[in-house]
From TrEMBL:
It is found in: Cytoplasm. Coiled coil: none annotated. Residues 5-100 form the Pyrroline-5-carboxylate reductase catalytic N-terminal domain. Pathway: Amino-acid biosynthesis; L-proline biosynthesis; L-proline from L-glutamate 5-semialdehyde: step 1/1. This is Pyrroline-5-carboxylate reductase. InterPro entries: 6-PGluconate_DH-like_C_sf, NAD(P)-bd_dom_sf, P5C_Rdtase_cat_N, P5CR-like_CS, P5CR_dimer, Pyrroline-COOH_reductase. It holds the Pfam family P5CR_dimer. It comes from Winslowiella toletana. Its EC number is 1.5.1.2. Keywords: Amino-acid biosynthesis, Cytoplasm, NADP, Oxidoreductase, Proline biosynthesis. It catalyses: L-proline + NADP(+) = (S)-1-pyrroline-5-carboxylate + NADPH + 2 H(+); L-proline + NAD(+) = (S)-1-pyrroline-5-carboxylate + NADH + 2 H(+). PANTHER family: PYRROLINE-5-CARBOXYLATE REDUCTASE, PYRROLINE-5-CARBOXYLATE REDUCTASE 3. Its main location: cytoplasm.
Length: 271
C-alpha cells in the first residue's frame, strides 16, 4: 500500500474514474485521498461514497498532497495551478491530466523547479481497464515516475511515452472510448432492427467488442489475421466487411482520429 497522500483539485468524470480505481485497487487508504472540487456537494458525495477526505480549498489539498492531481478542464488549469503554487511542498509531484496543456506551460504556471508529470488517462479507469500515458519532466526521478505508472497500473495499464506522442495517445485512447461507444450503440441498433430486445443487444455488442479486444491483447496475432479467422468463404461476415469497406469505415476512423489529434496539437499551441 502506498504511504502517500494524493490530492485532487477538480472532481469530475476523470477524478471520479481515478479515485474509484485507486480505492477499488486498495492502492492507498481512502482517507489519504484529499479532494477539492469547487462544488461542496461533490466533495461530500465523494466522502460518502469512498471515505476520502474532503478539503475546504485547493490550497489545503496542495499543502497536504505528496502527489497532486490537477483534474480541471484545460481552460482553467493554469490559473488553478498558479493559485496553489506557493502552497506546494518542494518535493510535491504535480500530475496534470489536462488535454493539450504542455509540460512547459505547466512549469510556467508552477515554477521551473517543480516536479511535473503530464498524463493522459481514459474513462475505462472506472472499471479497472484504463489506459494511461505518463510523461515526466526532467526533475522527476525514475522512482517517482514508476510510482505514477504504478498508480495508473492499479486500475488498468500505463506506459511512459515521450511528450511528442501525446496527440496520438489522445486519439487512440483518451478520446477513443467515445468512438467505441458509438460503434457499440450502432451495432446494438442493428441487432434491434433484427428483432433483439435493446438491453440484450447492448450486452451482445459490448461483449463482442470486449472479447475481440481481448483476443488482440492475448494472442499477439495481427488484427487482420483475427478478422480473416471470422470470415468464412461465401459466408455472412465477408458481406459485412465488404459494406464497411464500401462505406469507408477505416478511412472514417483514420480521418476522425486525425482531426482529434490535430485538435490536441492546436490546444497545446494555445496553452
Ligand atoms: N473525460 C475524459 O475522458 C478525459 C478527460 N481528460 C482531461 O481531464 C480533465 C478533466 O476532465 P473531466 O473530468 O472530464 O472534466 P469535468 O468537468 O467532469 O471535471 C472537472 C471538475 O472540476 C471542477 N472545477 C472547475 N474549476 C474548478 C476549480 N477552480 N477548483 C476546483 N474544482 C473546479 C468542475 O466543476 P464545474 O462542473 O462546476 O465546472 C468539475 O467538477 C480535463 O483537463 C480533460 O482534458 C483527460 C483524459 C480523458
Ligand atoms: O475531449 C477531451 O478534450 C478530453 C481529452 C481526452 C478525452 N476527453
Amino acid at each position: 500500500m502506498l504511504e502517500k497522500k494524493i490530492g485532487f483539485i477538480g472532481c469530475g468524470n476523470m477524478s471520479k474514474a481515478i479515485i474509484g480505481g485507486l480505492v477499488a485497487g486498495g492502492v492507498l487508504k481512502p482517507e489519504n485521498i484529499w479532494v477539492f472540487d469547487h462544488k461542496p456537494a461533490t466533495n461530500q458525495a465523494m466522502q460518502q461514497q469512498y471515505g476520502i477526505t474532503p478539503a475546504q480549498s485547493a490550497e489545503e489539498v496542495a499543502k497536504q498532497a505528496d502527489i497532486l492531481f490537477a483534474a480541471v478542464k484545460p481552460n482553467v488549469i493554469l490559473k488553478v495551478l498558479k493559485e496553489v503554487a506557493s502552497s506546494l511542498n518542494k518535493e510535491t509531484l504535480v500530475v496534470s491530466i489536462a488535454a493539450g496543456v504542455t509540460l512547459d506551460s505547466l512549469a510556467m504556471a508552477l515554477g521551473h523547479d517543480r516536479k511535473i508529470v503530464r498524463v493522459m488517462p481514459n474513462t475505462p479507469a472506472l472499471v479497472n481497464e484504463g489506459m494511461t500515458s505518463v510523461t515526466p519532466n526532467a526533475l522527476v526521478t525514475q522512482q517517482e515516475s514508476e510510482e505514477v505508472v504504478a498508480i495508473f497500473n492499479s486500475f488498468g495499464k500505463a506506459a511512459v511515452v515521450d511528450e511528442y506522442l501525446i496527440h496520438a495517445v489522445v486519439g487512440v485512447s483518451g478520446s477513443a472510448p467515445a468512438y467505441v461507444f458509438m460503434f457499440i450503440e450502432a451495432m446494438a441498433d442493428a441487432a434491434v432492427l433484427g428483432g433483439m430486445p435493446r438491453a440484450q443487444a447492448y450486452q451482445f455488442a459490448a461483449q463482442a467488442v470486449k472479447g475481440s479486444a481481448q483476443m488482440v491483447l492475448e494472442t499477439g496475432k495481427h488484427p487482420g489475421e483475427l478478422k480473416d479467422m471470422v470470415c468464412s468463404p461465401g459466408g455472412t461476415t465477408i458481406e459485412a466487411v465488404k459494406v464497411l469497406e464500401e462505406k469507408g469505415f477505416r478511412a472514417a476512423v483514420i480521418e476522425a482520429m486525425r482531426q482529434c489529434m490535430a485538435k490536441s496539437e492546436a490546444l497545446s499551441k494555445k496553452s
